[in-house]
Amino acid sequence: MKTFIVGLTGASGSIYGLRLIEELAKRDYLVHVIATDTAKQVITFETDIHLETFLKNLQQEGYKTVLEDAANFFASVASGSYHTDGMIIAPCSMGTLAEIAHGISDNLLDRAADVCLKERRPLILLARETPVNLINLENMLTLTKAGATIFPASPGFYSKPTTLNDIIDFMVGKILDSLQIENNLFKKWS
User: Fold this and answer.
1) Per the structure, how many domains does the chain have?
2) Which of 48, 115, 133, 139 has the smallest number of CB atoms closer than 10 Å to its CB?
3) What's the DSSP call for residue 31?
4) Is 100 inside any structural domain?
């Protein structure tokens, strides 16, 4: 069974991460979720959804999700010997991006990202900030050189989205494409 880690930070755009968790879970993958305390607050502020309830509902539907404690460095995902098929941080704040770029593991989210880099597993960061400054760009370059994929939250409009959900699905579909996971979340360029 494929296993993915989805990290959620305090950046705006929490709906991207929630939608991604849904899509991965619906494919019968095991999804480890790591959310910072600020992420949990932003999720509720932006969506009126409580992360714990959201994940319990998915579990009640038979999906495999695990909410990890961001302070628990003894979690399975903190070790390279625990195999995962990659990690996506959506949304990824510039603060978290900087910590990962500089090898600072203050929490499980940072550590799991570091493990993906050292084990050469996919690490996708849905960067959520605009405009970006030189420090942000240099951190993105450092991570790209280390093997991460930077995904600016920049939806395309060639699929002619008509709803906010269409825009969200475009970004989630692009992430799934990058992980080579088949999806029909948006109209592909032909």
Assistant:
1) 1
2) 48
3) E
4) yes
